[in-house]
Design a protein that fits this description.
Elements (H helix, E strand, L loop, with lengths): L1 H34 L4 H32 L4 H30 L3 H13 L5 H9 L4 H29 L8
Length: 176
């Protein structure tokens, strides 16, 4: 039983690392594309890359769930739990990378955005409102970490619910 549980967690962790790696690759490619001024084509390319990442992540998660379902006699609840843990691992990897990037690699990541926002809204906000806005800046990496974690995990949970239902077929509550 413990060996089965360890294999379950190990396989879902590996799948989560792969999905997180795909999301990180998209993040880094987006950063590199942002450094090259391509105008409209840069925005179009960024959108196409985002769509490709979305489709690839859904396809990979569906594939991981299908592979796992084959090993557990298409048990829907176990397949869903596998997807749930995979989604959480993926979200954790991606969120941790984004946090490390914005906190340690490029610590001015949010400062530049805040400065632009301050310049834009300086005429519309009072000095107290501007101070409040600027006081939020140090918290943004942590807020972004938890925001990414929750968003990615919820998205993965929804995809897991849909995929496990499609893979394992409809359930009959009177069967058990």
């Amino acid at each position: 039983m413990a060996e089965d549980r360890n294999k379950f967690l190990n396989d879902s962790g590996k799948a989560g690392l792969i999905l997180g790696g795909v999301a990180i690759a998209y993040f880094l490619i987006g950063i590199l594309l942002g450094k090259v001024n391509l105008g409209f084509f840069g925005g179009l390319l960024n959108f196409l890359l985002w769509a490709a990442k979305l489709v690839l992540c859904i396809w990979l998660l569906h594939g991981f769930l299908k592979k796992f379902a084959a090993t557990c006699d298409k048990d829907r609840s176990r397949t869903f739990r596998f997807g749930l843990i995979t989604a959480f691992c993926s979200a954790l990897v991606y969120s941790a990378f984004c946090f490390a990037y914005t906190q340690f690699i490029v610590p001015d990541f949010y400062s530049e955005a805040f400065q632009m926002a301050a310049d834009i809204y300086s005429g519309m906000l009072t000095s107290e409102q501007m101070d409040t806005l600027l006081d939020m800046e140090p918290s943004l990496p942590r807020l972004a970490f938890f925001g990414n974690l929750i968003w990615c995990w919820l998205f993965g949970t929804i995809v897991s619910a849909i995929s496990s239902s499609r893979i394992c077929g409809p359930s009959n509550p009177f069967e058990e």
